[in-house]
Amino acid sequence: MRDIGKNIRKLRQSKNLTQEAFAEKLFVTRQTVSNYENGRSRPDIDMVGLIAEVLETDANAVLYGPGGLEGKKSHKRLLVGCSILAGLLTLYFLLPVILRDENPFHAITVRYFCKVTCLPFVMTLLGWLVLEALGDFRSLKPWTGKGSKVLRYVLAILFGLILLIPIPYCVWLGIATYRSLTQSSVSMVFPAIPVYNSVLLWLIEVILKAPLSYIFLGAAAWTAQLPTRK
Fold first, then answer.
1. Quick one: which of 191, 204, 45, 41 has its CA closest to 120?
2. How far apart are CA 3 and CA 62, in angstroms?
3. Which of 60, 121, 139, 201 has the fewest beta carbons under 10 Å from its own?
4. What is the pLDDT of residue 105?
5. Residue 18: is its pLDDT beyond 70?
6. Are 215 and 127 a contacting pair, CB within 8 Å?
7. Which of 230, 224, 214, 225 shows the shortest CA–CA distance to 125?
8. Mean of the pLDDT values across residues 165-193?
């Protein structure tokens, strides 16, 4: 916001307006425009709105520069995403290592639990973060063309199914893992549920044998602007 004068100058020049022509549209003197652009004075909130209207942009572009506010939001999304990824990776790698010396069977059980529950999120988030970083530093833009809304809805439904279907199994697996850590012998068998077990088995096979496929799913989510940007 401290560069508001530079922002005004860049936006004015992008419209091929001289200071005199710009001043006429704002109903001020050329000297007033010069003072704005050189930082000797700042426009009030009403003038910022008028400047944005004359330059056919929005107030954020005047205050923060073209794409400035969105850039800050993008940096924040990237930072939050990286923090979540770091937490998931810590859980995925560190927990089995801590338990390995205490009880190898526990480590194997926990490793499987982490793979089924954490690995899909790690890979999906990784794919999303790669494109978010490219968008942040290389001006890569999400797809906004015809059909982008349809893709967004399809992916939202797909993500919903991928997240909801494993929940019963993950709850059962969490209980089984906890019991394996606290009891000497555990015998738990996941109940046979028609159709559900077949779909669940397919999802688990994808997670264990082709986890990289979730990276493409995360990249597709970013391309379709999921989560939706405001």
1. 204
2. 9
3. 139
4. 64
5. yes
6. yes
7. 214
8. 80
Q: Which residue's entry shows tokens 């999303």?
A: 128
DSSP 68-118: HHHHHHHHHHHHHHHHHHHHHHHHHHHHHHHHHTT-HHHHHHHHHHHHHHT
Tell which wins on pLDDT, 135 or 216: 216
- CA angle, 51 then 138 then 129, to 5°: 110
* Cα end-to-end distance, the chain, whole Å: 20
Cis peptide, bond prior to residue 227, ω within 30 of zero = yes
Listed in sequence order, the residues at least 6 apart from 126 whose beta carbon sits closer than 8 Å to its beta carbon are 85, 215, 218
Yes or no: say if 116 and 207 are a contact pair by the CB < 8 Å rule: yes
Please say whether the beta carbons of 40 and 33 come within 8 A: no
Distance CA 79, CA 74 (A): 9
Q: Is the dihedral of CA 166, 171, 176, 177 positive or negative?
A: positive
Name the token pair of 142: 């999400």
pLDDT at 139: 65
pLDDT of 24 reads 93
Is residue 187 within 8 Å of residue 194, measured between CB atoms?
A: no
**CA distance linking residue 72 with residue 78, whole number of Å:** 10
**Residue range 36-95, pLDDT digits in tens:** 999 899 999 899 999 989 988 878 788 877 655 455 566 788 888 899 999 888 888 877
**Beta-carbon contacts of residue 153 (< 8 Å; ≥ 6 apart):** none
